[in-house]
Structure formats: C-alpha cells, structure tokens
Design a protein that fits this description.
Chain B: It comes from Enterovirga aerilata. The complex is a heterodimer. Chain A is mostly helical. Chain A is built from 14 helices and no strands. Chain A has one domain: MetI-like (MetI-like fold), CATH 1.10.3720. The longest helix of chain A has 32 residues. Chain B folds into 2 domains: 43 residues, no CATH class; 241 residues, MetI-like (MetI-like fold). The chains are: A mainly alpha, B mainly alpha.
C-alpha cells in the first residue's frame, strides 16, 4: 500500500464518529420516550437506559392530544393529493411524451416553473385564493395547491417516453382510444415511476407544516405536524420531555417503518425527487 | 419513424386539441396556485390598504420593507444561514458518500442512519432539538459538561441561536445530499481510478483529479437544491425561536409569515415575497438551463 492509503481509513473512522452523532437524537428519543417519571428535566439527558421501560409517556401523549384525528387528517390530505395528482400527471405526462400540439415546448417550461415556485413561498396570495374558493379551514384547501405537479408530470413524461411506440401503434390498430391506451398500456408499464412519485409525494405532504398552518384553524382538522407543534408547546411548558419524545415517535413512526421495509425504493424515489 | 407514426394514426384524430385537453386539469391548478399568485403578489406589493380602500403606493411597500430593520436582519440572516448550512452540508454529504460508497452491509446501515433525518418532518426534528438545546440540563450541555466544556444558551443567545438552527438544518439535510453523491460516484468508470493508480496517484490526488471532476455536475445540482431548501424551509423557526431573540433567527419566509399573519401588513408581506421570488428565480434560471441541457441530450438520443 502506498502511504496515501491511510487517509481513507482515517476518513472512515471520522465518518463513524459522525454517524454516531447523527444517531444520537434518535437514540435519545427512544430512551426518553420509555423513561419513567419523565417530568422535570433532571436526568432526562442520559442516553443510558438504566430503568424499567414504561409506556406511560405514550399513553400521556396519546391522551393529551387527539393523535387519532391527526393521523386521519394527514392520511386524508396525503391520499387526496396523491389521488388527484396521479390523474393530472398521467394525462399531462402522456401529452408531453407522445402528442404534438401547438405551444408544446412553451407549456413544458411553463410547467417546470412550478419546480421553483413551490406553493409555500406564495402562501399569502394562495391563502387568499383558497379563501375565495370557500376552502379556508378545510382539508381540500390544504390539498388544492398541490393537485398539479410539475415534478410528477416530468417523471411520467420520462417514463412514457421509454415505452416503445410500437405498443401504442398496435393498440391503436386494435381500435383502442387514448384513455384506454393510457390506462392499459402506459400506466402499467410506468409503475416504477408512479411508485417513486407516490413515495416522494406522500413523504413531503406527511411532513408539511407551514401551509396547513396557514389554512387550518379548527383544531379538529389539524394534520400530524400541526398537532405535534401544538402538543410540543404544551408539553414544553410542563417540561414533559419524555412525552414530547413519545409524541414525536407517534408522528414519525409510519414513514420510518415504511423506509425500513422498502429502503431501496425510498432511496431511488428521493434520488428522482432531486429534479425539483 | 416519424413518417411511420403519422401513417399509423387514423386521420380523424384531432391530436392538437387532445394534447391541450389533457394538459387542462394541470393548467387549471397551475394557473390558480402558481401563475395567478405571482401576478397577485406583484400587484399587491404596489398597493396598500388605507381606510378599507386599496390605493396604489408605487414602491412605497418596498421602501418601507428595506427601511425595516427586521427585514434587513432576515435578509442577512438568510444569507449567513445559506452559506453556513449549504457549504458544510455538501462537504459532509460528499465525505459520507466517499466513505460509504462500497455496498457492504455495514455501510448500508450507516447510510440508512444518515438518511433517517431526511424522512422526518422538520417540526418533529425541532421537537427533539428543543430538548437537545435546553440550557444546562439538555442533551448537548449534559454531554459537553462531561467533556468539561461550558455549554451556551443555544436558542436564547442572539449570537448563538442562528448557528444552533444551522446545526439542526445540516443534521436534517446532509443525508439527502449524500444520496446524489452516492449515485454520482457510481457513474465514475473504474478505469479512471486504475489509470490514476498506475500513475502513482495517492488517495488525495485521486480525489482531487478523478473523483471531484466527475462529480462536478452533481455538486452544482445539489447546491441548487440545497439553496432552494434554505429559502423554502422555515418550520423549525416556528417551534424553536419564532425568529428571536431580537430577530437574530428571522428568515425571509418567516418574515413574510409574520407580516401577513401577525401584523396584517399585506403590502409589506407581498413586497418581501417578491424579493424571495426574485432570489428563487435567479436560482431556478441556473437549474432550468441544466434541465434544458438534459432534455436536449435525450432528444438527441
């Protein structure tokens, strides 16, 4: 080995230390969430589980905020957005991939603008639009700005373009209409891209905070992130750190579990999401 | 190919109309929530509400905006925050990718840990860091004390708070950028390293003359994403500092929120939004050009 080869090993050791630092907040979260007598901060900082674990913090968190309803709202928001998006991006993706029409290039760039002008930056005028549509303080109001997706359209266009034209020609010969074509030829073949898009879409809306904060007023319509923020404010006053840790786990658990199960798919989807 | 395609199509198909019809659903929502709000915010930024009437004030809102020390603070903070998070995140992400690029079981586990913060809401990360940054008894101070280091008032000291938030942001995002570098590293041909080794290049020289040049497109691409995130993600401010103490952690988007929701000053909020839009568009110009090149390359294939 030439002398220079020592640096990679040093580098790896440094990265090991950093990974330990990266894992520490999660380690604390796990330990603190099951630590008994979690009121007051004394001893809360220890990462050593020197106690009999308790579920009291989770019970406390579950009781002090309406997590069941927050879950329902978040699921409705993510599901509603995704359902509409799949329709809009499939149609637009097919148009951009296979159809000729006037203004195609211009419209394509007009779509791409949305990659930068993310709705959250335009929150003040968007809030006004949502109010004018009568959607203030409703879940559809949270969803509406995301119904069109430039990223999704781009992804579907890329996927559709790789599908051989011969398949379309053959289906057309058999008398298929365009919507039958999209449903039975294009969408099934673009399934990996659809899954990638779904993962990115659900993750980003599951985690979103600022836009729902603007639109939602009624406590019963809060999604998980809003619920957690309110809940944290309350529990912080009481110094109930173990309860905050438990509440945080409740919010992040579904996505973290999904990631643990489908790591490969998540990683590929997030790579694709770099387009935005 | 083009000829054959045209032949295969029944003559009655109004393809031009169909294309536009398929775009219509998307265009309705893009119009409502992307194009229209831009026009609206431009118009709003030139007007003010006075006695229930909307009057044209020209650049008045902008003058008021730039005269507002809180806005100046937000602008400077955002700049410091951008530099202070993007550069370390990218360096760390590159380091992580270089160290963990070979796909062993251990590396996969380590990469998963680094990626975990990306998956959780910024609000949830902030809830955790609330305790980490707690003075004296919090996680950070507890372990710093064991090392004999005096902690700080991480979120309460105006000189420190923004740096604490940067720490959180780096922790949250570095794993995301790592993915792109990992993908970029896979694109480097093994022969380049072989050649460099035969020339007697040590590991630093291989990094400098082989790896980094290959990763340049990835690097600039990731830098744009990271900069976009700096402008559009402010959720942690809501939980941890609310822009304080004394505006030391106020960022542009949070300032817009404050003006609109807490002060009801829509003109100023709109003017501040226009400033952020200008920043975003300047950024997007670079990345759009990249996208264009990519599309062209495909078209040529």
């Amino acid at each position: 080995m030439i002398p220079g080869e020592i640096t990679p090993r040093l580098g790896f050791a440094a990265v090991l230390v950093l990974v330990a630092i990266w894992a520490t907040p999660f380690a604390w979260m796990l330990v603190a969430s099951v630590r008994p007598g979690a009121f007051g901060a004394g001893g809360m900082a220890s990462l050593v589980p020197d106690f009999v674990p308790t579920a009291a913090n989770f019970a406390e968190a579950w009781d002090s905020a309406d997590f069941a309803r927050y879950y329902l709202n978040t699921i409705l928001i993510c599901g509603g957005i995704l359902a509409v998006q799949i329709v809009t991006i499939s149609l637009a993706g097919y148009a951009f991939a296979r159809l000729r029409f006037p203004g195609r290039t211009f419209l394509f760039y007009a779509f791409l603008i949305q990659l930068m002008l993310v709705p959250v930056v335009l929150l003040v005028p968007n809030l006004r639009t949502v109010a004018q549509l009568g959607l203030y303080d409703t879940l559809p109001g949270v969803m509406a700005p995301y119904f069109a997706s430039a990223f999704g359209t781009f992804l579907m266009r890329q996927a559709f373009r790789t599908i051989p034209q011969e398949l379309e020609d053959a289906a057309l010969m058999d008398g298929a209409r365009w919507h039958e074509l999209v449903r039975h030829v294009y969408l099934p073949l673009a399934k990996p891209s659809l899954i990638a898009f779904s993962i990115v879409s659900v993750t980003s809306h599951w985690n979103e905070f600022l836009w729902p904060l603007m639109v939602i007023n009624d406590p019963d319509k809060r999604p998980l992130t809003l619920g957690l923020a309110t809940f944290t404010r309350g529990a912080e006053g009481a110094q109930a750190w173990g309860v905050i840790a438990a509440g945080t786990i409740l919010v992040i658990a579904p996505l973290v579990l999904a990631f643990a199960l489908f790591q490969r798919r998540f990683v590929n989807s997030f790579l694709a999401s770099g387009l935005k | 190919m083009a000829v054959r395609r045209r032949l295969a199509l029944p003559a009655w198909r109004p393809k031009g109309l169909l294309g536009l019809a398929l775009l219509a659903p998307s265009l309705v929502f893009l119009g409502l929530f992307t194009y229209w709000p831009v026009l609206q915010v431009l118009w709003q930024s030139l007007h003010a509400e006075a006695r229930r009437q909307t009057v044209f004030v020209g650049l008045g809102n902008y003058r008021a905006l730039f005269a507002d020390p809180a806005f100046a603070a937000a602008l400077v903070n955002n700049l410091v925050y951008a530099l202070g998070t993007v550069v370390p995140s990218l360096v760390l992400a590159l380091g992580f990718a270089l160290a963990l690029s070979s796909s062993t079981r251990l590396n996969a586990a380590l990469r998963a840990i680094l990626f975990l913060p990306v998956l959780i809401p910024l609000v949830a990360a902030s809830s955790l860091f609330l305790f980490i940054f707690l003075p004296q008894v919090g996680l950070l101070d507890h372990y710093l004390a064991k090392l004999g280091v005096q902690g700080a008032n991480w979120l309460g000291d105006p000189d420190v708070a923004l740096w604490s938030l940067m720490g959180l942001t780096i922790w949250k995002n570095a794993g995301y950028y790592m993915l792109f570098f990992l993908a970029g590293l896979q694109g480097i041909p093994e022969e380049s390293y072989e050649a460099a080794r035969l020339d007697g290049a040590n590991s630093w020289q291989r990094l400098r003359y082989v790896t980094l040049p290959y990763l340049r497109p990835t690097l600039s691409f990731v830098a744009v994403i990271a900069l976009l995130n700096v402008v559009t993600q402010v959720d942690h401010i809501f939980i941890l500092t609310k822009g304080g103490p004394s505006d030391s952690t106020n960022l542009l988007l949070f300032y817009v929120y404050q003006q609109a929701v807490e002060r009801y000053d829509l003109g100023k909020a709109a003017a501040a939004t226009v400033v952020s839009l200008a920043l975003l568009l300047a950024l997007s110009a670079t990345s759009l050009r990249r996208m264009e090149r990519r599309t062209d390359a495909e078209e040529a294939r």
